[in-house]
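BUG: 3D viewer hangs when loading the predicted structure for this chain

Environment: internal workstation, default settings.
Expected: structure renders.
Actual: progress bar stalls at 90%.

Input used:
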Amino acid sequence: MKQKSCIETYFIPPRILLAGMFLFLLQSTFASRKDSTYTSNNVRKPDYFIDDYQNRIDLLDGSLDHKIDLGDSLQTALATRVYIRLIDSIQRLVENPKFDEAKRKAFRDGVYLQIRRITPVNVYKVKYWNSVFRYLLNELNAIKQKRLYNFLINNMRQSFNTFALFKTETCADSFLIFAANYHPDLVFSTYDIYSSQPYSKHVLEEAAKIAPVTVKKYFNPGGAINEVLKSSGDSAVQILMEIKNKYGRKSNAFTLLDQIITGELTLDRADAIGASPQKYLRAMLQIRTKKNPMGVHSLEAELEIYSLKFVRVLNDLHNDKDAIRFASIENFTPEEIYTLMVYSEEEIFTSTFNGLFNRVMIKLGPVSGYEFLNGLGDNRFRTFIKMCAGFGKLGPFLQSMASLHQQMLMIKFASGLEQYNDLSQAVEVADAFGSITDTLVLKILRGAIKYEYLRLNTKHNYRGTAIYGLLSSLFVERSVTNNSWFSSIASQFSLPNFDKIDNSKLFAHDSTSRWFLYFYDDEDGDASFSSFTKSFNDRNWKVIDSGIYVIIHSDSGMNVNIYANKPKHEYDGQEKIENILSDNGYEANVMVHRGHSYYASKTIDKIKDNTKIFVLGSCGGYHSISSILDHSPEISIISSKQIGTMFVNNPMLKLMADNVREGHDVEWQSLWSELQAKVKDNPKAYERFLDYIPPHKNLGAIFIKTYNKMMEND
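Structure tokens produced before the viewer hung:
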């Protein structure tokens, strides 16, 4: 294949560009329109503006013929189906007599807001637009069938994208308040869409109490949210405003709202405690042992931040003696050490976990592990069990309790997963399963999962049946007795193989594969960046230094452009690359996060629908994986149980890049075997390699993908 220039050009096919420049300047009239634009009485239909915009899209190829020619037969067929037939289906549903005219108007506005986002630059993203408009269609059906709330909470990010469609529905406020537990920023940032609704003030008040640290970002003088909350009569909101006025937005007293409300802390005391990391951590822990504490979203986020601060120090001292390494936490209670462990899952080293685990067990003394978890309100107990299984400590922990309690704990671990509004707890169970080898524990889990499946199936609980059906399929490949029942269930709820990605999926419509590596200015950023670029010093690649970023361009084989910002140019380098891609309508097919986990959310938010591979430096929990899949449902995720290392990342990325450049599919099992052979001679690299999780072994991601596909089909 002939190579293009290694510097990206602003490529849009001329016929599309010229047609687009002309047509998108037109206001709303066309010489010819769809027949449906006018009624039999020659009166223009209320949704004519949707029809007109469809015509604009139709005319992008120069012909108004109900066909969107994108130069490729498959793309053309899909585009015609999405931009013409699917939108027509939505319009017909909008006109359903079950909806009154006020609803129809809101629905038309919601559809129009989406269709007008289609431009000559992004019209090629047909799969993305297919998911958007199919979601709109399903949303309207959910309204018609009076099951909108349950539909919305199954994909909250997509629901926010289409919020204008259902903002007047009776469950809109309930959805927003529920979503504040997971995505409070979206609740606040979309306020202008629902600000005129009668529920808007109540939603802001409840969201502020769930996420007090998030809402303080919106305490800007004269800002709409600030003005509404200033006038609130809610006592908790008044306290938040008082903290802001007295101590400013930097105070950690916001997180301690629960103890201020209950009178356990004064404002002055809360602000003082927030200034001391250890006291602040302990105060948060005390609040977290309660059921449904106020400020729960901010509490969870802050516990992760402060736990990671302590654990990173322990990680950095991994070469020192334990007496020095663990000196900073020797006075911690077992509850506090437990908190460090379960809230630092993304970065904790094996040796750090083992050291902390041993100290918890010693400090517990005669108290059993079962009683210990009960005293913590079972907070993140599934995460703890999963981590114990992964680090080989589940056996010792279970031995700290009576055999009856062992059974009760593992049954509780696998039971009631359908009660949660997301898949986080089910994914913890799925992830743990891959590390459990004890036959007795497997037998208990197998019995619990079978019981739960039969219970929920009898109740016709489709969601719960799907969760336990998928978990049941995990037992088929394991050597357990009486396997026939699980085999029969697996035939209905099989977990598919995600063992490869077709080469064609990693290329854009202009036959170029684009990669984007996000480097961050942390302590090892420069060394990691330098090592990465040097790995491409061979005749098949050319490294172009553009000052604040580099482009690594394939010099043979297929077109591959790899962008990477320099760590010292974390902001301007990333922004420059993003502008190059967005201005041309390009999206990264492969994205890589090269930095600590506290930067991960920034990178994850950049994922596009066409991103097919994402490399996450640290393992991430459910919410990281779920968020990645929300952005790109078919994406393959590579992660690590610990912090990623350049001694694994660089040879892995080079192998992948050469595979793609040579036109091969990315077959994970063979690539992983080849990578293992490359790092095996380096003991430290090989030890870290064993903590990496390739896409075909990532049970959590596979579980979520399969479940989401089942719900979508349903």
